[in-house]
TrEMBL record:
InterPro entries per record: Nucleotide-bd_a/b_plait_sf (IPR012677), RBD_domain_sf (IPR035979), RRM_dom (IPR000504)
Residue ranges, annotated region (Disordered): 97-126
Organism expressing this protein natively: Dibothriocephalus latus (Fish tapeworm)
Keywords: RNA-binding
GO terms assigned for molecular function: RNA binding
Organism phylogeny: Eukaryota, Metazoa, Spiralia, Lophotrochozoa, Platyhelminthes
Gene3D superfamilies, per the entry: 3.30.70.330
Protein's name according to its UniProt entry: RRM domain-containing protein
Length: 214
């Protein structure tokens, strides 16, 4: 049992996950309760916790503590027809910055494609509207899907997927332009994003980074 001072008021620990559970599955299920700033599946729970029910568990950190209350009020929970248990999450260890155990990051955490610097788009560069860079798009993501996803944060005036001029294939990144800075106030840069099963990298575009502080 965690002491009250050790509990992260915005986090939950999820146990008993199906063996096939991925980060995006955890995100998809718990997104009904609120925006998340961190979500990941731990694949070797039995090695770290001898009293756990399965090999897979997970951590979800919400932006707002109220989301945690909603999660506990909605129990019991099932993921892929399997009952899962939800407990309060432990605060990050002050010494190592972890959640009480070692967690390896996904391969695209904290990454930004260098290809952003190679884009030549005069109309976008001269725009007075705030826009964001979106990385790790899957090849099939369309501009309509990109617009629909980010419209939840603010009115989108343009969504651009960057394609290779020679092959016509997506280069795996794009840009989204908003009508104003509402999306930044709504936390578009603070929370996790998944689209078509891929964890996205979302950062302010260098073309309009000054909007973040407004």
């Amino acid at each position: 049992m965690l002491r009250e001072e050790d509990v992260n008021p915005k986090g939950i620990f999820v146990d008993g996950l199906p063996e096939t559970t991925r980060d995006c599955d955890l995100f998809a299920y718990f997104s009904q309760f609120g925006l998340m700033t961190s979500v990941f599946v731990i694949k070797d729970c039995l090695k770290k916790y001898q009293d756990r029910d399965s090999c897979r568990c997970g951590i979800v950190i919400f932006r707002d503590a109220d989301a945690v209350n909603k999660v506990f009020s909605a129990q019991p929970h099932q993921l892929n027809a399997k009952k899962i248990t939800v407990e309060p999450a432990k605060k990050r260890n002050a010494d190592d910055g972890k959640f009480g155990f070692s967690v390896s990051k996904t391969e695209n955490d904290d990454c930004q494609s260098k290809d952003e610097n190679t884009i030549s788009d005069a109309s976008a560069q001269s725009s007075n509207h705030p826009d964001i860079y979106v990385g790790y798009l899957t090849p099939e993501v369309t501009e309509s899907q990109l617009e629909a996803y980010f419209s939840a944060f603010g009115r989108v005036t343009k969504a651009q997927v960057v394609y290779d001029r020679d092959t016509g294939q997506s280069r795996g990144f794009g840009f989204v332009t908003f009508a104003d800075n509402t999306a930044f106030k709504e936390g578009v840069l603070e929370v996790c994003h998944f689209l078509n099963g891929s964890r996205l990298t979302v950062k302010p575009s260098r073309r309009n980074a000054h909007y973040v502080d407004r």
